Amino acid sequence: MKKSLFLYLTILAVLSTIFTYMFLSKQVTFEQNRYDKTTKKLRDSLSLVSNQLADANYFSLAKNENAQNYFDSESSKKIIQYEKLIPVVTEKLLDYNSNPKGNPYTGQDQISANKFIINKVKILNHRWIIADFSDGEIWGEVFLKYFVNEDESISFEVNQSLLYQK
User: Fold this and answer.
1) 17 with 91, same domain?
2) DSSP of 88-153, one letter per residue?
3) 82 and 149 both lie in a single domain
4) Where are the membrane-spanning stretches (predicted)?
C-alpha cells in the first residue's frame, strides 16, 4: 500500500511538473507574441504621428531651408539665426497684447468690452506669420507680414484678418 501511494504521488508530481512546464512555456510564447504585436503597433503609430507632425510643420520657418537661407545669405548684410529669431518675433508680437485697446496687429477694432489679443503665433517663413486672436467671446485669425529692420527691430504689417461667426 505504501509503495503504490509513493508511486501515485511520484506520477502526480511528474504530471504536475509537465503541465506546469507546458503552461509556462506557452505563456512565455504568448507574452512574446503580444509584446511583438504591441511593439509593431506602437512603431506604426509613432511613424504615423511623425509623418503628421512633419506635414503640419511643412509651413514653418524652423523647417523651411529656403526661408532660413534668406537670413543667412551673402547678399544680406548681417546673419540672423532663425532659431533665435522665432522666439524674439513671437515675443514682440505678443507684447502688443498689453495695449489698452488690444493688440493692433489683430486687424480688428475692439467690438465688446474685452480687447482683442493674440493667443497663438506661427511663423511660416522669412516674411509671413499666421496668428490666432480672441476677445474671450469672438475668435479670429490674422495673416501678417514681418520685417527685421536694419537696427534689428521687428515691424509688423497686417495683410488680412478675419473673424469667425459665433
Assistant:
1) no
2) HHHHHHHHGGGSTT--GGGS----SSSPPEEEEEEE-SSSEEEEEEESSS-EEEEEEEEEE-TTS-
3) yes
4) 6-24
pLDDT digits (tens, 9 = 90+) for 65-117: 888 877 775 555 556 777 888 899 999 999 999 988 889 999 888 888 889 99
- Are residues 137 and 74 part of one domain? yes
Domain stop point among 35, 57, 79: 57
The overall pTM is greater than 0.85: no
Answer for the pair 140, 160: CB distance below 8 angstroms, yes or no. Answer: no
What average pLDDT does the structure give for the chain?
A: 88
In this prediction, residue 6 has a pLDDT band, given cuts at 50, 70 and 90, of: confident
Please give the residue range of the domain that contains residue 18: 1-57
| Residue 75 neighbours by CB under 8 Å, 6+ apart | none
**DSSP letter (8 states) at residue 80:** -
**CA-closest candidate to residue 94, choices 122, 71, 55:** 122
